[in-house]
Design goal:
Methionine aminopeptidase; about 260 residues; 4-stranded antiparallel β-sheet; metal ion binding; Creatinase/aminopeptidase-like; about 25% strand; alpha+beta; Creatine Amidinohydrolase; single chain; 5-stranded antiparallel β-sheet; globular
């Protein structure tokens, strides 16, 4: 299903997106060496409940997972890049942490992910991974607008990742979003320009470039959820929910901070 949202629902989507951004930035500010992934999950639950919103994850049970997910946020550490199931792991200095959060409020969902390094150590490889996904995300957003096609976004994202020297996995990528978290169209992280669904005002998309340092192959943990790099290399993941407008794309999950090239009003 592909949803086109009317102005009233897009206004509600902005509220949901702002909430997702606020929760992620709060989690980032609270996370230090020694923080447990289960602490992060508890904090997330408390903020969602306080806001009168609902988790898109806790009851999520797709065919590819061992569901329901049962937690409120995805927490990927180092070689874990997608669907990271929170567990009793305490973060160490230099760990690369990816947080992926989807929330629904007033009938509209928003989805975003951030990656950052915990503590004072800043391994160069981790810094480069995060930078590449963030640059690819903003390239994808810049390619989005009325009349553009999904392939234009995919090509923009993939061009940045490939130029940075990373292999690209196409099993998982971005997606449509609206009244539910995952909808059509699928947005791969590489593709050919001029191909695919033509974007229209009111369409919402979650764009999410993710990479692994030296492979494109994933393996799945015994928990049935957590996806890791097949070689044990480090990984990173960045994501925003956007809404196509009459003259471009509005980033709904941008935090109230300056981000290169974009500032929330």
């Amino acid at each position: 299903m592909i949803e086109i949202l009317d102005p009233a629902r897009l206004a509600r989507a902005k509220e949901t997106g702002a909430l997702v951004a606020e929760i992620l930035q709060t989690l980032k500010s609270r996370t230090v060496v020694g923080t447990s992934l289960l602490d992060i999950d508890r904090w997330t639950k408390a903020m969602i409940v306080e806001a009168g919103a609902e988790s898109c994850y806790v009851d999520y049970a797709p065919s590819f997972g061992r569901g329901p997910f049962g937690h409120y946020i995805c927490t990927g550490v180092n070689d874990a890049v997608l669907h990271g199931l929170p567990h009793d792991y305490r973060l160490a200095d230099g760990d690369l942490l990816s947080l992926d959060l989807a929330v629904s409020k007033n009938g509209v969902a928003a989805d975003s992910a951030i990656s950052f390094i915990v503590g004072d150590s800043k391994p160069a490889e981790s810094v480069a991974l995060i930078d590449a996904t963030e640059r690819a995300l903003h390239a994808g957003i810049a390619a989005a607008g009325p009349g553009a096609r999904i392939g234009d976004i995919a090509h923009a994202i993939g061009s940045v990742l490939s130029a940075a020297g990373y292999l690209i996995n196409t099993e998982f990528g971005g997606h449509g979003i609206g009244s539910t978290m995952h909808q059509d169209p699928h947005v791969p992280n590489t593709g050919r320009p001029g191909r695919g669904y033509k974007l229209r005002p009111g369409l919402m998309l979650a764009l999410e470039p993710w990479i692994m340092a030296d492979t494109a192959e994933l393996v799945i943990d015994a928990d049935g959820w957590t996806l890791r790099s097949a070689t044990g290399c480090r990984t990173a993941h960045s994501e925003h929910t956007i809404a196509i407008t009459d003259d471009g794309a509005d980033i709904l999950t941008l935090p109230k901070l300056t981000v290169p090239g974009h500032t929330r009003p």
